[in-house]
Write a structure and sequence with these properties.
191 residues, mainly alpha, 2 helices, 80% helix
Length: 191
């Protein structure tokens, strides 16, 4: 086998190896990015849980504020000699309870909305990582194919540039002999 074809074969091998190595690097980066995105999504979900927990905690703490307001109302009314167990005094206390309860529901609702937004953000991070993984898979296949095509092109170019013994090179008016040397046709009979 002629030396130029051997050299071309070695170059083609390196081109294939380079394509495979690039593909593996792309896949490795995609795996790392997916793991990183999963970790970030987990942190976001923990924040969502904390936000919801904080809302319920605030609501529970607010109950003591409601109780204090109603207690102060009762003490104030009792100090004026108003019976707090019926009539408008009782209605004022019930209105305070209702107002406090609605405030508690609002706190819980706000916390749940914040939690829902954070959970959606975590889903978005995971979805983005999945889409990036699909793109990386496509990129890695492209790198592999580019390596194979470059190797095939190198071999085809090397093979087409290598003339077989006994062939005619019409543009130079020469014949390649069995030893691979070109001999000029003195008679110009080649064409």
């Amino acid at each position: 086998m002629p030396v130029p074809l051997v050299v071309a074969g070695v170059v083609a091998g390196f081109q294939m190896f380079s394509g495979l190595k690039q593909a593996e690097d792309v896949r490795s980066a995609a795996r790392f990015n997916k793991e990183l995105a999963e970790m970030n999504a987990g942190f976001i979900e923990m924040d969502a849980w904390e936000a919801e927990k904080y809302g319920f905690t605030q609501s529970t703490r607010y109950q003591s504020v409601i109780d204090d307001v109603i207690s102060d109302q009762r003490v104030g009314m009792a100090a004026r000699g108003v019976d707090v167990s019926f009539g408008s005094a009782k209605e004022v206390q019930e209105a305070s309870k209702l107002s406090g309860f609605l405030n508690q529901l609002d706190m819980i609702q706000q916390a749940q909305n914040q939690s829902k937004n954070l959970k959606n953000q975590a889903l978005s991070v995971r979805f983005g990582a999945t889409m990036d993984g699909i793109a990386a898979d496509s990129k890695s296949r492209g790198a592999e194919n580019a390596g194979y095509l470059a190797a095939a092109n190198t071999m085809a170019s090397a093979y087409s540039g290598y003339a077989k013994p006994g062939t005619i090179n019409r543009s130079a008016n020469r014949v390649q002999g069995a030893t691979g040397d070109f001999v000029r046709d003195p008679y110009g009979s080649m064409g």
